[in-house]
Design goal:
Layout (H helix, E strand, L loop, with lengths): L15 H12 L7 E2 L2 E2 L9 H4 L2 H5 L26 H18 L4 H7 L4 H8 L8 H10 L1 H15 L9 H7 L4 E6 L10 H9 L7 H14 L2 H4 L4 E7 H5 L5 H15 L4 E6 L13 E5 L5 E7 L2 E5 L2 H17 L3 H14 L1
Parallel strand pairs: 3-4, 4-5
Antiparallel strand pairs: 1-2, 3-6, 6-7, 7-8
Helix pairs in contact: 1-4, 1-8, 4-8, 5-6, 7-8, 10-11, 14-16
Length: about 350
């Protein structure tokens, strides 16, 4: 990958290392144009996924009308045509930002590491792009590097954590999630990602095939936990989740993980903007026979559907198809247990664990 660094960021951009850090921190968010693997990124008008992708559909999807009333089509979010940087490149980018800021403060790794309460070897791995940065690193770095450097590092971290651990075929939907005013999810395979406690997330990725390395597991766990901040960051978004009782009965990861999961669901379900319903094991009238479904309402009050397969996914924007999904989801809501019964069932199950 080849990219040319800007000669200057502006009169107040600071010394050269800060300029470089600013450049790298904005590189994946669409603030500058980057050409990679034949894909010409056009700044904010052509954001792809992740944190920057939260606005991707403003330029390309429902509600983004270059001509009023003109319907724009989404591209299929499969394996082909993915212009996102590789995960290793994203981590290296964050590491380069951290190193530039550390050196600007005239600190060696040996001096910096104890100040942020991490080992020298761990800081070296992060700067090399071989470790996913822990969340505490940002707060601790501000104490050492100052507020300006912390803002730059925070920008790089937001760009990284919201998409680095996400599958390439999921990033477009993750961007839609970040600005949706309503989010619906029906799951029959696993607890929805936004509701998974950390032990459950680890249980999933530790059993993933092909097997993942410890480093890859840490990236995936960190990314999913970061994505879950949506539940608190968007109190005006209405979240609705319908999950099959079988997912609770499965005890993924063992009894202790199952107990943690039940406690977590009860806690998240108590939020004013979150509704969780359980679909009972025996249900003679079931509208979810076609499998999982996700639906999002955009700020322009248009609906988008999403579905996943093996290593692939598809966005659904045809009004006819999205209408069918909304009808099915509405039916599922009427068939699933109500709020009180949904709370009672996990409490009973937890007592039996």
């Amino acid at each position: 990958m080849a990219a040319t660094l800007p000669r200057s960021v502006g009169p107040s951009a600071g010394p050269a290392p800060i300029q470089i850090a600013l450049y790298w921190s904005t590189r994946w968010t669409g603030s500058v144009a980057v050409r990679e693997h034949g894909c010409a990124e056009r700044g904010a008008a052509r954001l792809a996924h992740g944190t920057g992708g939260a606005r991707a559909w403003q330029g390309h999807g429902p509600g983004a009308h270059g001509h009023r009333g003109r319907r724009l089509r989404w591209r299929r979010a499969g394996r082909g045509g993915n212009c996102e940087p590789e995960l290793s490149e994203s981590l290296k980018t964050f590491g380069a930002v951290l190193k530039a800021l550390r050196e600007e403060a005239r600190l060696t790794q040996e001096q910096f590491a104890p100040l942020v309460r991490y080992s020298v070897a761990y800081i070296a791995k992060i700067e090399q792009g071989k470790r996913f940065p822990p969340r505490d690193l940002l707060d601790r770095s501000e104490e050492v590097l100052g507020a300006t450097a912390a803002r730059v590092l925070g920008a790089a971290a937001r760009s990284l954590t919201r998409k680095a651990g996400l599958a390439s075929w999921f990033r477009q939907w993750a961007g839609i999630e970040e600005e949706a005013i309503s989010l619906y999810a029906y799951e029959c395979r696993a607890i929805p990602g936004l509701l998974q406690p950390e032990p459950y997330i680890r249980a999933i990725f530790e059993r993933r095939l092909p097997p993942l390395s410890e480093e890859q597991i840490e990236r995936q766990v960190g990314s999913r936990l970061e994505r879950q901040q949506l539940l608190t960051e968007r109190p005006n978004t209405a979240f609705s989740f319908i999950i099959e009782q079988a997912l609770l009965e499965r005890h993924m990861g063992g009894p202790q993980v199952a107990r943690t999961l039940v406690d977590h669901l009860l806690k998240e379900g108590a939020r004013r903007n979150v509704e969780i319903q359980v679909m009972p094991l025996r249900q003679y009238d079931h509208a979810g026979i076609d499998g999982l479904m996700y639906l999002a309402e955009t700020p322009q009050h248009e609906w988008v559907g999403y579905s996943e397969g093996q290593q692939s996914s598809i966005l659904i924007t045809s009004p006819k198809d999205v209408s069918a999904m909304l009808q099915r989801y509405g039916k599922l809501r009427s068939q699933a247990l109500g709020r009180e019964a949904t709370v009672s069932l996990p409490e009973q199950m937890r007592g039996a664990l």
